[in-house]
Specification:
It holds the Pfam family FBD. The protein is an alpha/beta fold and about 325 residues long. It has a domain of about 120 residues. Helices cover about 25% and strands about 25% of the residues.
C-alpha cells in the first residue's frame, strides 16, 4: 500500500484485506470514522499504534489478526466507541499481547487465545463486552473443554495478567463470556476474590453441568445484576459421573438474587436433575424475579418439568415461569 494512504484528509471509511503496509512516517487521517483491518501485515508495532492514534475521530475499529502475528497491539484512542479484535491460533505466544486504552469505548468484542496479556484501561461504565480469552492461562492447547486441573495450573501461571484484565473490565455494564473465560474466572477466584462488577446489569454465560457448582459464588461479584442468560452445553469428554453431577447443591444466595435480578433465560437440555435443581434454586431465592424463561433442547420432559415448577414456592410474587 502506498504512503499516501496515511495522509488522506477526506477519507471516512477504510477497509483493508490481506495487504502489507509500509512503515508510517507521518500519519494524518482527520476524518476517518470506520476502519476494518483483516489479515493486514504491519512492518512493526509502532505503525499500528500510530495509525489508530492519528485518527482523532475514529469510532469503529475491527481487527482480525493472522494467527502467526505475535505483535503487541496497542490501541490508544479518545474517540473509539466500538472495537472488535480477533486473533486465533493453536499456540500461545509470550510476546503477543493487547493493550486497550479507549475511555469512550462501549462495545468490545474480543476473541484472543494467543496473547499472554490483555490489558484494558479506562473502560467506560456503560461498556458492553463479548469475550473469549484462553491465552492468558498458558494452556498447552486451545480448547474450552480442559479439565479443572489444567485450568488451575494455567491460571496460577497467568495470575498477574488475569488480575490486571479483570480489574480493567470491572466497570462494564454487560458481558457475554465463553465457557473457557467462565472457567478461568472461577479458577482465579480460588487464588483471590474476583473484583466487584458493580455496574453489571446483563450477564450471558456459557457453561456445562460440571460448572454449575461455581455459579452461586460467581454471582457474588455481580451485586446489581438484572438479567442473567445461562447457555448450557453438553460435554461428554470431562468424565464427570452422572451421580456426581446430580449431587451438586446450591446453598449460598448471592446479593443480586435478593435485590436486583429480574430476568433469567436458561437454555438447558433437562437431561439431569441438577438442571431442575438450578431452576428451582433461582425461583426460590430470587426475591424480585419477574420472569424465568426455560428453553428446552427437547420437548420430551416438558409436561413433567412444568408440573414440578408450578409447585415450586417462589420468592417473588411477580415471578412468571415460561417453558419454551
Amino acid at each position: 500500500m502506498p504512503q499516501r494512504l496515511y495522509n488522506c484528509e477526506t477519507l471516512v471509511c477504510l477497509k483493508l484485506f490481506q495487504v502489507t503496509l509500509s512503515d508510517a512516517e507521518i500519519v494524518s487521517l482527520p476524518c476517518l470514522e470506520t476502519m476494518y483491518l483483516e489479515y493486514v501485515e504491519f512492518p512493526n508495532e509502532a505503525t499500528f499504534e500510530t495509525l489508530v492514534l492519528c485518527s482523532p475521530v475514529l469510532e469503529c475499529l475491527k481487527i482480525i489478526v493472522a494467527s502467526d502475528d505475535k505483535k503487541v497491539f496497542r490501541l490508544h484512542s479518545r474517540s473509539l466507541e466500538r472495537l472488535s479484535f480477533e486473533r486465533v491460533s493453536s499456540l500461545i505466544c509470550d510476546s503477543a499481547g493487547v493493550v486497550i486504552d479507549c475511555p469512550r469505548l462501549y462495545v468490545l468484542n474480543i476473541k484472543d487465545n494467543v496473547s499472554k496479556s490483555v490489558m484494558i484501561r479506562n473502560l467506560g461504565c456503560n461498556a458492553i463486552l463479548q469475550m473469549s480469552l484462553v491465552g492468558m492461562v498458558r494452556l498447552l492447547e486451545i480448547d474450552d473443554d480442559f479439565c479443572d486441573e489444567i485450568y488451575e495450573e494455567g491460571v496460577l501461571l497467568g495470575r498477574s495478567n488475569i488480575h490486571t484484565f479483570l480489574h480493567g473490565i470491572s466497570m462494564a455494564r454487560s458481558i457475554i463470556m465463553s465457557r473457557g473465560t467462565f472457567k478461568i474466572m472461577c479458577q482465579y477466584s480460588k487464588l483471590e476474590p474476583l473484583p466487584q462488577f458493580g455496574n453489571m446489569c446483563y450477564l450471558d454465560v456459557t457453561l456445562c453441568l460440571h460448572d454449575f457448582q461455581w455459579l452461586p459464588a460467581f454471582l457474588e461479584s455481580f451485586p446489581n445484576l438484572k438479567q442473567l442468560v445461562l447457555v448450557m452445553v453438553c460435554d461428554d469428554r470431562e468424565g464427570f459421573p452422572d451421580e456426581d453431577i446430580d449431587q451438586v447443591s446450591f446453598s449460598s444466595v448471592p446479593e443480586c438474587l435478593l435485590s436486583s435480578l429480574e430476568f433469567v433465560d436458561f437454555q438447558a437440555t433437562v437431561q439431569y436433575d441438577v438442571e431442575i435443581k438450578l431452576v428451582k434454586y433461582l425461583v426460590k431465592t430470587s426475591a424480585v424475579l419477574k420472569k424465568l424463561s426455560l428453553r428446552l433442547a427437547s420437548y420430551s420432559r416438558r409436561d413433567k418439568m412444568l408440573k414440578k415448577l408450578l409447585k415450586t414456592p417462589r420468592a417473588s410474587t411477580k415471578c412468571k415461569v415460561v417453558i419454551l
